[in-house]
């Protein structure tokens, strides 16, 4: 079976807490945000693929798998996106017509050969400046989208666009897996598809069930008994605003593959 290998880059988008509320509760806003993110990433890849500079933009396509995370490292509610993107663009070439007297072994071989010949891959050259441009563009378009959906007033969006240090928007694309590193790609996909709870962070200390949090905390911890850790209680999962409750509601978050559509045109 034809199994090509291409380099893959992880793109991560996080938005300010004020906007996470709407991503959590408005499916339309969630879908629009993801499509805008994918569209901007695709445009950046097209602009940074030297081999595709003379190609028709309509023939260039993105390859990506998106993961919607609804939790943070401290089991808090935190909607954000992890997207594994093939680090380049695919160009659709004119269809290749096979001769009727071809000596291929089977029709499936013919189809596979034609498909391989009608698509070419152009690798991208993404640097820090390109990532910064994606950040600025996504920030501008998302604020416009939230105004269009009635979640922000125009003057609030204008203020948020001027906040320093990214204004709570974060775009990271520092993880890149080389084409030949299939084990690295598997680790990345497993990381993106992970559930909220990590069993190796869950410990019992006496009568306490303790969960060690990740890099930082998006919300104050309910207990200071153990620094950087959560003390879970049997009733925690039944209380709507407790971290364990948020995590239990997001374990079934699906992994989705999305083509870049045209739903974000109104927000350009």
UniProtKB/TrEMBL annotation:
GO terms for biological process: DNA transposition. Residues 63-215 form the Transposase IS801/IS1294 domain. InterPro entries: Transposase_32. Residues 237-268 are annotated as: Disordered. One of its GO terms (molecular function) is DNA binding. This is Putative transposase.
């Amino acid at each position: 079976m034809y199994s090509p290998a291409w380099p893959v880059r992880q793109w991560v988008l996080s938005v300010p807490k004020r906007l996470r509320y709407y991503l959590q509760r408005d499916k339309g806003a969630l879908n629009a945000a993801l499509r805008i993110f994918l569209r901007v990433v695709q445009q950046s890849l097209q602009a940074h693929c030297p081999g595709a500079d003379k190609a028709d933009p309509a023939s260039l396509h993105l390859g990506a798998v998106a993961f919607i995370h609804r939790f943070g490292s401290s089991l808090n509610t935190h909607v954000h996106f992890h997207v594994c993107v093939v680090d380049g663009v695919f160009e659709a070439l004119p269809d290749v017509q096979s001769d009727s007297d071809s000596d291929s072994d089977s029709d499936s071989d013919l189809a596979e050969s034609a498909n391989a010949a009608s698509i070419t891959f152009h690798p991208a050259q993404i640097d820090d400046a390109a990532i910064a441009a994606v950040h600025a563009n996504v920030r501008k378009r998302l604020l416009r989208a939230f105004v269009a959906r009635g979640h922000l007033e125009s003057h609030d969006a204008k203020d948020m666009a001027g906040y320093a240090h990214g204004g709570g928007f974060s775009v990271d694309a520092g993880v890149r897996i080389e084409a030949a590193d299939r084990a690295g790609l598997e680790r990345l996909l497993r990381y993106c598809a992970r559930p909220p709870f990590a069993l190796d962070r869950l410990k019992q200390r006496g009568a306490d069930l303790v969960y060690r949090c990740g890099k930082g905390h998006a919300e104050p911890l309910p207990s200071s008994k153990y620094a950087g850790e959560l003390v879970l209680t049997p009733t925690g999962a039944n209380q709507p605003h407790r971290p364990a409750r948020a995590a239990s509601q997001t374990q079934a978050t699906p992994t989705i593959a999305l083509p870049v559509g045209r739903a974000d045109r109104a927000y350009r």
